[in-house]
Design brief:
The structure is a homodimer of 239-residue chains. With 239 residues, chain A is of the alpha/beta class. Chain A is built from eight helices and nine strands. In chain A, helix 3 (75-82) links the parallel strand 2 and strand 3 (86-91).
Chain lengths: 239, 239
């Protein structure tokens, strides 16, 4: 009797498995008219601040919730809950990005259990702070948002192209830093036009918003865009 | 005749392989009195700026070179070379951190070929901008430095503990941001004492420096520390 050798190509099989799971998750949400938004960017790029401002400005009647991803702590979920919104905190230990399985578990905790359950209209996923790995993993969201803050510098699209290629939207956050200068010049020199041009070179379809949670710049336009996407998602589900 | 099944545990075996390679690399550098320093932190945390200031302030006669890691571009290697220092740029495509094999290849390009070659005394590795993955991979350096900038926020040790556990040194960069305030309060609120306490809770041995490349705060102290480490490394090699 001869033995059998089964081959498992870990990398590809894990990747394909996540992709299939993400596509099924996205299809299931779209069929119910639920919009899920994946918020990505470096640590400290302003994801949580922009998220809290967005929740505050959403048209009344939209039921929104948040899935927070971090290596450890409940800092961000606490902030979301303190602001009056439901949140689930995923703690990954050392894992560097969320994947579709983790987000599925988060959705279940939020009450998305049966295929017809629709406890929320809009779910934000605040991914691990990581400009590299999160851009390479599909969590099943219909809308992928990259955040880039002024103090990070304007060379980031050149150095981290994968994120800018894979995002649907780019939020240029902390635009108010432009107003500050110290000895030797601007506090956070940032050529926003060069960033826009480089991002569009990598990804011609990318939508770009410039925002500041301090001055309020761009927040209404940004929130209107999210609300409009949710409306389209609902109309699509009704078709 | 029965078949044979060979089992390869990819994760562990890759991990062990890198660890062995990193330890051999470190031992080889230490035996020659060469100090290698791994610079880690988020994108935009100020690694390149602090590196350039350090190179400029090093005591005369130290032969230093830089291995730059990025997903794409030669932005940082260009900056190092423009400042008059030798650099190698490693472009990883999408890979999220450097490992010992990549750094070995960089050292070879710098002229570390035979076991007695000593073209430089001090090699800085500027790792991929990533507060998560770089802290989990040993590149073979004797000194691991985590960078955390003011605008990233003071909650980072709680949210990204792995980096702060594994670094020997923490550089609190962009300290000059403290002097700026906008409508509604400080531009970049940051409780440095809380960060120090949290970092020391995670890692009692960690050395902490506070730096600003704009005002010059902490740069002489920091550079003296690096020079002293290099001196110890040389003395150790002579034993």
């Amino acid at each position: 009797m001869s033995g059998t050798t089964r081959i498992i190509d870990i990398g590809e099989s894990l990747f394909d498995d996540n992709k299939r799971r993400a596509e099924a998750l996205r299809a299931g949400l779209s069929a119910r008219g639920v919009l899920m938004v994946d918020l990505m960017g470096s640590p400290g790029s302003g994801k949580t601040s922009l998220l809290l401002e967005t929740l505050r400005r959403l048209p009344a009647g939209i039921r929104a919730a948040v899935i927070e991803g971090d290596l450890d702590s409940t800092v961000d979920a606490d902030a979301v809950q303190d602001a009056g919104w439901d949140a689930v905190q995923i703690r990954t230990g050392g894992y560097c990005h969320l994947d579709a399985a983790m987000v599925s578990a988060g959705l279940e905790k939020l009450g998305f259990q049966g295929p017809a359950d629709r406890p929320y209209d809009l779910v934000f996923v605040e991914n691990i702070g990581n400009l590299v790995c999160t851009g390479q993993s599909d969590v099943g969201a219909q809308l992928r948002v990259a955040h880039l803050s002024r103090p990070e510098g304007d060379d980031k699209p050149a150095k981290y192209p994968v994120m800018f290629r894979n995002a649907h939207v780019l939020a240029l956050t902390k635009s108010d830093y432009d107003a500050f200068a110290g000895p030797g010049g601007p506090l956070a020199p940032f050529d926003a036009d060069a960033v826009r041009a480089r991002a569009r070179f990598l990804n011609p379809e990318i939508r770009i918003f410039q925002t500041s949670c301090r001055t309020g710049e761009g927040l209404d336009e940004w929130t209107a865009f999210i609300a409009e996407r949710l409306r389209s998602c609902r109309l699509g589900a009704g078709r």
